Amino acid sequence: MIIVSACLCGINCKYDGGNNLDERVLKLLKEGKAMLVCPEQLGGQETPRVPREIINGNGLDVLEGRARILGAELNNDVTSKFIKGAYETYKIVEAVGASIAVLKARSPSCGVSKIYDGSFSGTLRQGNGVTAELLLSRGIRVFTEENLDELEL
């Protein structure tokens, strides 16, 4: 079983109420190989919601208490919801015996290798999102739709 970001299968759970449908990921779901998750909703966030980014760090920094996650208005600290969503996602990973995840690129939850830098300007920085970091630390192989071709099924 593969854990996949629900937005990549056309579920309208993206911050703006839309989705990021990727037919390759949807195919995994249709073949019965995928379980949908949305870490941000699992953490208790609403949809739609204001854009949020990790401020002064990356997912590891958030998990270790050195960085926070704020909305674009910068007075809405949702760090605890992102952490909760990461751990709730990991519970699902364990429950279904997944060893692979396909998550949404650049997201503060799901991004792998590159995430938005916290300036809300579209600028990227090195690092993983909170959920991606937690899954990687637990031995889960994590991909995004941008490097899905590297996944051999």
Describe what this molecule looks like in 3D:
The protein has 153 residues and is α/β, with parallel strands linked by helices. It has one domain (2-150). Helices cover 28% and strands 20% of the residues. The protein contains five helices and eight strands, in the order βαβαβαβαβββαβ. It has helices spanning 23-30, 39-42, 59-63, 79-96, 130-137; strands at residues 2-5, 34-37, 52-55, 68-71, 100-103, 114-116, 124-126, 141-144. α1 (23-30) links the parallel β1 and β2. The longest helix is centred in the middle third of the chain and has 18 residues, at 79-96. The chain is globular and about 40 Å long. The relative contact order is 0.20. The mean pLDDT is 96.
Total tally of structural domains: 1
List the helices and strands in order.
Answer: EHEHEHEHEEEHE
Can you give the mean pLDDT? 96
First-residue to last-residue Cα separation: 11 Å
Please work out how many helical segments DSSP would assign: 5
Q: How much strand?
A: 15-25%
User: Roughly what percent helix?
Assistant: 25-40%
Strand order of the largest sheet: 2-1-5-8
Secondary structural class: alpha/beta
Radius of gyration: 14 Å
Q: Please provide the count of β strands.
A: 8
| Shape field | globular
Question: Which ranges are low-confidence, i.e. pLDDT below 50, for 5 or more consecutive residues?
Answer: none
